[in-house]
């Protein structure tokens, strides 16, 4: 019996290249990482609410500095190990906490990634993941559709919703799993600033079938669409739907 292959929606090569770029950009401008900072605060708030202080924590992020620092302040030891490939078994386990930020929305085998995370936890360990879920980037989606005209290209990643994430958490073997979401809105004065923010935070396209670059005409249409969506102050509101997955082993 052959094992069914996992559809390759995302390019691993492009994903790892984006990761390296994000690490470099974060070092150059730590203040541009508002989404990671927001996710880090969200995870710590949940740990405080549950009164759970992990002895050993693994932070799954390109640049884990903000969350690792907050956890260390609360007395947790932070695992010193390279960022694992989420689609492979972890090189070690026994973690009391595995926290993932903006990683799981671009893995080809999300069920497998959740199974590997559960297996790497110590008994009674906790897994928390924050990612951009269904409904994220609606303004950019409209802008890119206007830019492409009658032949739209796939430029926005497929996005997972609460119901699907909850089912996957159960299949992965987590107990007491909870999946919820909330909106984070950001206002932009220009399309260039919006794109620069996504690039700086490691949120750009890593689809296996890379879309064609925007032409000069399509870029002009994108800017016109942005201007048409702007409010009285010349700003466009973009939305990130932050999906948070929580489960215990």
TrEMBL record:
Keyword Membrane: no
The organism's place on the tree of life at top rank: Bacteria
This protein's UniProt keywords: Methyltransferase, Transferase
SUPFAM superfamilies (alphabetical): S-adenosyl-L-methionine-dependent methyltransferases
Protein name as annotated: Methyltransferase domain-containing protein
Protein source organism: Alteraurantiacibacter palmitatis
